[in-house]
Amino acid sequence: MSTDENGMARDHAPDDVRLARAYLLRVAEPPAPALAAFVGAHGPVEAAALVRRGQAPDSVLQETSARRELGLAERDLDEAERHGARLVVPEDAEWPAWPLLALDIATGRGVDGVAAPIALWVRGGARLDEAATEAIAVVGARAATPYGEHTAAELAYALAGGELAVFSGAAYGIDGAAHRGVLAAGGVTAAVLGCGLDAGYPAGHVGLLNRIAEHGLVVSEYPPGTPPARHRFLVRNRLIAGLTAGTVVVEAGARSGARNTAATAGTLGKVVMAVPGPVGSAQSVGCHQLIRDAAATLVASADDVLDTVGRLSAARAAPPPARRRTDGLGPQALRVHEALEGRGGRSPEEVATESGVPLARVRALLPALELDGFAERCETGWRRARS
Amino acid sequence: MSTDENGMARDHAPDDVRLARAYLLRVAEPPAPALAAFVGAHGPVEAAALVRRGQAPDSVLQETSARRELGLAERDLDEAERHGARLVVPEDAEWPAWPLLALDIATGRGVDGVAAPIALWVRGGARLDEAATEAIAVVGARAATPYGEHTAAELAYALAGGELAVFSGAAYGIDGAAHRGVLAAGGVTAAVLGCGLDAGYPAGHVGLLNRIAEHGLVVSEYPPGTPPARHRFLVRNRLIAGLTAGTVVVEAGARSGARNTAATAGTLGKVVMAVPGPVGSAQSVGCHQLIRDAAATLVASADDVLDTVGRLSAARAAPPPARRRTDGLGPQALRVHEALEGRGGRSPEEVATESGVPLARVRALLPALELDGFAERCETGWRRARS
């Protein structure tokens, strides 16, 4: 949040800041670590002016030279507004500074390819900072199985019921099922795209994206008009991982973009989780490998997810399993109980022989078992009590 | 292996040793840690004589007082022979001393309930020491699902194909499926029982046990005539865990005896593994909990099992997944490649703008991509090469 000339906090960044960041998003293909650092050092307005004039270190010019002549910031902001979208900048109260801090920390540690975004194009009725406060990423294969889509939808539904926002990538398969599960629960879901918000991609999910935007969010760092590309999905994955507390991979083949998101989440120090499946399913191979390599924690339910990210759920899905009545018995009492028969009675001597428990102990244990309702006397000796 | 009066090694223990151990197996209900230590200190013949006369420490008398009058050793050995069984004692070459050492070590560390057996009743054509040299336990729920039984059978089949012996408990469900999988592969399987070898239990598996005995082994520490009992299955589980290098739980409910075997295997320092399944299946809950709690390593195949127990399999089940052709490209080359179109050509300037890669780099990368077969020149500029 910035302050105005009187030092009062305000919710929105001034227009020149927004224009400068819109320009910077346009001239550099993310992630642009040198540019991000340059903006951090000079502020967005001065940084933009310097880049435009070519007065920046070589590393910054490398990232920006191809497009720095482009003066499309105003057009991009107008275009976005026409699509019902806005540019959220770090100077806004809506900026998700806390979850994205992980990107700066990892970049500072020397991790490549995870520089923080310069700003984010956002469309939808939710506030990005609020959605990202308690958020889980649910991602997975496009070529998902019915099991995977069902599991993703159920998991997302339950997470939304637990007041968590669910982030995903709007792809076919697991991503779409996760978004739909949240919508069914009336919760908040966010789709983070690897293309401009107006790209209409994937084509079959345009309606879904519109529904997501009603109560949730559609997010991208790519300016209007940017087409989807494979490298952009990989770059986008750092935002899905960065904006959430943890990432759940629901289904993933041996090679899968979802595993890339999981690896990025791990690099960022976020929690990585994976859902198991039938061992014969090729779409669970990636999840099983993540779990086997201890790169992900197995989760089988929303409660598992909440436990793993460290928040206790208010209401457990299932009560603990019932104890068998004899669970409280010691080993010798258990053996004596086992040595009794349901119908015919046995003498303490017979019980001692059958159970291997010394006769004196048997004589002491039988009345104790009777008191606890496990044994009863009959004409021919002792027998097991009917339950 | 013992030595005869000339100091020559011999394969079989003398008759008095076998008689003494048969007597000791009859008088104490396993596990009998005090008796095991007493036998270790005095040797089986003297220990048996002292126990019979009541001249033993209280701890030993506690374990043996109920039955020490029983002089059934000769009858038990005759009875066993009539059923085609034998008593294997630690003085025999066939004794699986090395794997069972884990029981002594754990008992020495103060772990309760895992004392080594005094001897083992064995029926079948295989040698117990050889079977236990490279052995895996495959266990699981009696109330197994078709998925679980199928997975257990396939896993056991593949392990048997890798020359490993598969141990299990002959129960309905997973145990039976594991034994049958090995029999289908013509391998060696061993059933370890919680009752006498002649108990005919479980009734529906008498035929299966006969087939197991043909080329494999049926094993028990309980004398002929001992009926099955719940506590005996728990006690038996330490032998399944102890005789193998690792235990695989294929299916287990939230409460399951298979989890007891897994816990015992962990206590003994053996490898514990679990097979995942669909998250909606109640019979996979126990496996998922074991994996989630890091009490077991996830295994999805026989190769996973072999990797986990530390032996590399000679032949991998599946070749590594194929690499995509563009995997070898650097990030800038990948972005340039993505910026090309399949049909119409693009100028280097257009490619630079679209990819965000500096024009000078684009001019250098395009010919390099051409050399590697990723790009080609056409009348209108550069386009993606057809693969």
TrEMBL record, chains A, B:
Gene Ontology BP annotations: DNA-mediated transformation
Domain DprA winged helix residues, every copy: 320-378
SUPFAM superfamilies: MCP/YpsA-like
Signal sequence bounds: none
Superkingdom of this protein's organism: Bacteria
A Pfam short name: DNA_processg_A
Domain Smf/DprA SLOG: 114-309
Family per similarity comment: Belongs to the DprA/Smf family.
Cited NCBIfam families: dprA
Protein known as: DNA processing protein
